[in-house]
Design a protein that fits this description.
Blueprint lengths: L1 H20 L1 E10 L9 E5 L5 E6 L4 E11 L2 H10 L1 E7 L2 E7 L3 E4 L4 E4 L10 E12 L3 E6 L5 E4 L2 E9 L4 E14 L4 E5 L7 E5 L4 E4 L6 E6 L4 E4 L3 E3 L7 E4 L5 E4 L4 E5 L4 E7 L4 E4 L1
Parallel strand pairs: 2-6, 2-10, 3-9, 3-11, 10-12, 11-13, 12-13, 13-14, 13-15, 14-16, 15-23, 16-24, 17-23, 18-24
Antiparallel strand pairs: 1-4, 4-9, 5-6, 7-8, 17-22, 18-21, 19-22, 20-21
Length: 289
């Protein structure tokens, strides 16, 4: 009986050792600086599997931390992943790029083009990885962020001229921001709180998720709303514009006003002003002060 226990214990230790050998994790730190304090400075982040989090602060450098984890089915696959997957940074004029570097992606820092490399036979069955990126930027840095799988995109305390965010299979959260906004989330919710109300035309898109926007008091906007299955809610005074369709205004206990519509419609919030465009398939929009 004692021999059996000893053999079982040895097997357990062996299995633990194998599992540890098939997993690799590392933290990558980079610090860069824009050539000047221009209002045109841009941070562009391109991730594939993993999250992106950006925080504005009072410093003058861009501080990047990438947490990379790679898993392989065996030692050979793990070593291949370690050799092929990494986070890279580059700069060109007033743009700083942070991106996933891999055999199946390609990037040109001079043009800023990042995409899939079709000239390879990479197979996702060889290994699996996840790259979570956290970045601190000067508060007025413009942003262009994208991710695809296994992670959210979050932005906190950035007041810039332009913020562009796209996430395919994760949510988008923009907290205490300012600037012209373009957001697109295919399958999760979008949540935005503005420290300063938008002053330039902004666009919000979602395929299968809700869009929730919090604005400051005294907000005025012209809203274009397009959806197949969804409603729009607001607690601000509104005025419907002549519409191409019939729309119904009903009272709601949870939210002050509800517009039910089956196609495109336009209306003004407050006195009207900056253009806000909403394009959804299955989801609701909430705009509240």
């Amino acid at each position: 009986m004692n021999s059996i226990k000893k053999i079982s214990l040895c097997l357990c230790l062996l299995i633990v050792g194998i599992v540890q050998a098939q997993r690799h994790s590392e933290t990558i730190n980079e610090e860069l600086k824009f050539p000047s304090q221009s209002a045109e400075n841009l941070l562009a982040v391109y991730n594939v599997h993993g999250s992106v989090e950006v925080e504005g602060y009072n410093g003058n450098t861009v501080q990047v931390v990438g947490d990379l984890e790679i898993k392989g089915n065996n030692e050979r696959q793990l070593n291949q992943g370690k050799a092929e997957i990494s986070m890279k940074v580059a700069s060109h004029e007033d743009i700083i790029y942070v991106y996933l570097d891999s055999p199946y992606t390609k990037f040109n820092p001079e043009t800023g083009r990042y995409g899939h490399n079709n000239n390879n036979n990479w197979s996702g069955n060889r290994y699996h990885y996840k790259l979570n990126i956290k970045i601190k930027v000067p508060r007025n840095t413009n942003l262009e962020l994208s991710a695809i799988n296994q992670g959210a995109i979050e932005v906190h305390n950035v007041q810039a001229k332009d913020i562009t965010v796209s996430n395919i299979n994760g949510p988008i959260t923009l907290e205490n921001i300012a600037g012209k906004t373009y957001v697109n989330a295919l399958n999760k919710d979008i949540n935005i709180s503005y420290a300063k109300n938008p002053t330039e035309e902004s666009t919000y898109k979602s395929l299968n998720g809700d869009i929730n926007i919090s604005v400051q008091k005294g907000f005025n906007a012209d809203v274009a709303f397009k959806t197949l299955n969804g409603d729009i809610y607001t607690n601000i005074d509104t005025k419907l514009k002549p519409s191409k369709i019939n729309s119904t205004k009903v009272k709601s206990g949870k939210k002050s006003t509800r517009y039910k519509m089956n196609a495109d419609t336009e209306f003004s919030i407050g006195n009207g002003g900056v253009q806000m465009n909403f394009d959804l398939l299955n989801g609701d929009v909430t705009i509240k002060e």
